[in-house]
Amino acid sequence: MRALLWLVGLALLLTGCASEKGIIDKEGYQLDTRHRAQAAYPRIKVLVIHYTAENFDVSLATLTGRNVSSHYLIPATPPLYGINTDPQ
């Protein structure tokens, strides 16, 4: 019995350390974290919102490239794309 409780406790501990990948569905919005920026820096100091004239695919390729660091891509329809986020 003691060994079983130990194994259950260990399984819960390891499950708590697992990071969530993919689409995170929060109340009212969805966040897709499958695309990561190569120039990612996790600490957000400033939030800048600007319009990109490119279509979604080109914008995603640009914002996940080596020369930029963007935290979110917000398309016309959900989900939002968290490309430099740590879903904690």
Secondary-structure map:
Blueprint: H1 2-17, E1 23-26, E2 29-32, H2 56-63, E3 72-73, E4 80-82
Parallel strand pairs: 2-4
Antiparallel strand pairs: 1-2, 3-4
What tags apply to this protein structure?
single chain, four-stranded mixed β-sheet, alpha+beta, 88 residues
What does this entry look like structurally?
With 88 residues, the protein is an alpha+beta fold. 27% of the residues lie in helices and 15% in strands. It has helices spanning 2-17, 56-63, and strands at residues 23-26, 29-32, 72-73, 80-82. Strands 1-2-4-3 form a four-stranded mixed β-sheet, with helices on one face. The protein is elongated, with a radius of gyration of 18 Å. The protein starts with a helix and ends in a 6-residue tail after the last strand. 10% of the residues are buried. The mean pLDDT is 73.
Please tell me the overall pLDDT: 73
> Percent helix among the residues?
25-40%
Individual helix count? 2
How many β-strand runs? 4
Categorize the overall geometry: elongated
- Strand-residue proportion: 5-15%
Structural class: alpha+beta
Gap between N and C termini: 34 Å
Number of domains: 1
Biggest sheet, in brief? 4 strands, mixed
- Uncertain residue segments: none
Pattern of helices and strands: HEEHEE
Q: What's the gyration radius in Å? A: 18 Å
Strand order of the largest sheet: 1-2-4-3
